[in-house]
Structures are given as structure tokens and as C-alpha cells.
């Protein structure tokens, strides 16, 4: 379990650093517009449409998620290198596509690796995943220190170092973490067979809707905070508060939420997410925004925990990685792409409060749908 925990930690050190400072680097150092920042994020999320499903298929076929993790981690570090060499829009758009093709497979493959370890050795997925939450906090403050000491120009180099460390850890993964053999069928045939299950279709539809209105928070919250007058060095503290609540809740998820049905738990998480987005749009006092970010523990942490554990319990082990790939592709991929691009234009033309208001209204509609439609 140590290997999975370490991978989650470094995986989200990158996510925390990237989420807090990459958008600021693109706009305030590289000179990109908010719409261009949205398109860059949209291209990254577009990679989530197809590639997690492909990596999940390869994991199911090979029965060795550790081998796939090693390959993806090394390729991610190599393909990110141009970000440390140029700020030009056109080449970096192409680099985003190539880098994203590999990087978006890390969550699916690490989840599959962790579930394989739990099945073999016992343990709790949530206990490993909270190291990712801790990594997210660490990543934000690491980049804050780098920016304070070296300026915004150091952001890509710092992120590259994190990716190299992730690849180094993945290269040391011990042994072979095996999963049951897969049926002898093509990728598309397996996807069609999975989508014939009505419960899975309902689950994926709600997950898509949840991310459709959520990704603006992750791309544009740092810019919104800066526009409210928050210092750059203080931006990671807001995420730290939210992710700390995520750590506390996910570390005790079985005890706190074990008696909740999936429908009730996901509906509650989405309702609180809508409340969080709405409050971010109207609250302008920094102290109150810290309290609002405490809702992140439910709006994302427990929501994601509920989704992954539902897939782990309701999908056969031989199909699990592909089902996780479908979850990533439809929700974070298609939903995230549409959200990133749409939020970029909303933020550019109407500002942060309107963008978060639209996200709040849409998420509350999805929460109501989840309460009625989830299995």
C-alpha cells in the first residue's frame, strides 16, 4: 500500500501546484487571455474523453496496472518539458494535447493499482487516497515558495521536477500487481457491454453533469481570488483549508458515511457543491471564503470517494479499470472540457461571480436529478 500512497501523494503534489499557479503563469507571465487559458484547460480535459478509457483497457488486458503506471509516469515527465522552454500559445496547445494523452491516465491507473493492492493485501482505498489530498496541499505551498523565491517564470520548471520525481517512484514499484484476466473482446465491444447496464448509465450521466458545472472552480478560482485582491502567496491556503477537510472526511468515510446509500450520499455532496459555488460567487471577504472552502471535503472528496467505491463494488474486477476509464472520460473528460471552455468565456466576458453563479445553479439541478435517478 505504501507504493500506492506515495503515488497518490506525488500525483496530487503536481495537481495542487498546477491548479494554484499554472493559470496565473499563463495569464500574468505568458500573457494569455482568460479565454485562451480556458481553451488550454479544455484541451487537457478533452484528453480525458478517450485516453483514460484506453489506459483502463490496457490495464484490463495486461492484468498489470503497475506496468502501465510506470510507462505513463515516465512519458508524462518527458512530454511536459516544452512548457519549461517556451510561452508561445500555438506550440503549447499541441504540447498540452500530447502531454494530456499520458497524464490523464495517471488517476485511472493509480486507482486500479490501489484497488488491486486492496484486493490482494487488504486495506482501505480511502486511506491511500488521503495521501493524494495531503499532496495537493503540499503542492500548493511548494509552488508558493518557488514563486516567492524565484518569480512566476519558475512555475513550469517546478512542475517538471515533480513529474520527474513521480516517474522515479513509479520506476521502483515492487513486483507485479495483478488483476483477473479480461474477456477476449475489443475495447468498443467491452464499452458497449458495460453501457448496456442501466445502473451504470445512470451513474455516469450524473457524474457527467456534476463535472460539467464544476471544473471552472479548479481552473479559475486562483484568478478569481487574485481579482478579489488576495496575494498570490496566499492562494494555496484556500485550497489547503478545503483539502484538509477532505482528508478528515475521507480518512473516516466508512465510519461517517457507511450507512448512506449511494443516491443519498452523492445527492448530498452535489447539493453542498452548489452551495459552495454560489457562496464563492457572492462572498468577497477573505476570512469568510476560508469557511466556504471547508465544503470542498464533501463537494469533491466524499463525492469522488463514493463514485470510486461504487464502481469497485458494482463492477466485476475484470472490467473495473475500463469502468473507471468511462467514469473519467465522460465526467472529467467531456464534462470537464465543456466546462473549462464555457467557464473561460463566462469569466472573460461576465466575470467570476457570474461564472460561479451559473455553476451553482447547474449543480443544484444535477443534485435533484441524482436524488431521483441514481440506482
What is the CATH fold-level name?
Growth Hormone, Chain: A
Helicity level: over 70%
Second rung of CATH, namely the architecture: Up-down Bundle
Q: CATH class, anyone? A: Mainly Alpha
Outline type: globular
Q: What is the CATH homologous superfamily assignment? A: MFS general substrate transporter like domains
Total number of domains: 1
Overall mean pLDDT stands at 83
Rg, Cα atoms, Å: 19 Å
Ranges with pLDDT <50 over ≥5 residues? none
**Beta-strand content estimate:** under 5%
Short description:
The chain has one domain: Up-down Bundle (Growth Hormone, Chain: A). Helix content is 82%, strand content 0%. It contains 17 helices and no strands.
Q: What is the strand and helix layout of this fold?
A:
Blueprint: H1 2-29, H2 34-62, H3 65-80, H4 89-103, H5 105-121, H6 125-150, H7 155-171, H8 187-195, H9 198-212, H10 215-227, H11 235-251, H12 253-257, H13 262-282, H14 286-293, H15 296-314, H16 320-350, H17 352-373
Helix pairs in contact: 1-5, 1-6, 1-7, 1-10, 2-4, 2-5, 2-16, 3-4, 3-5, 3-7, 5-16, 6-11, 9-16, 9-17, 10-16, 10-17, 11-14, 11-15, 13-15, 13-17, 16-17
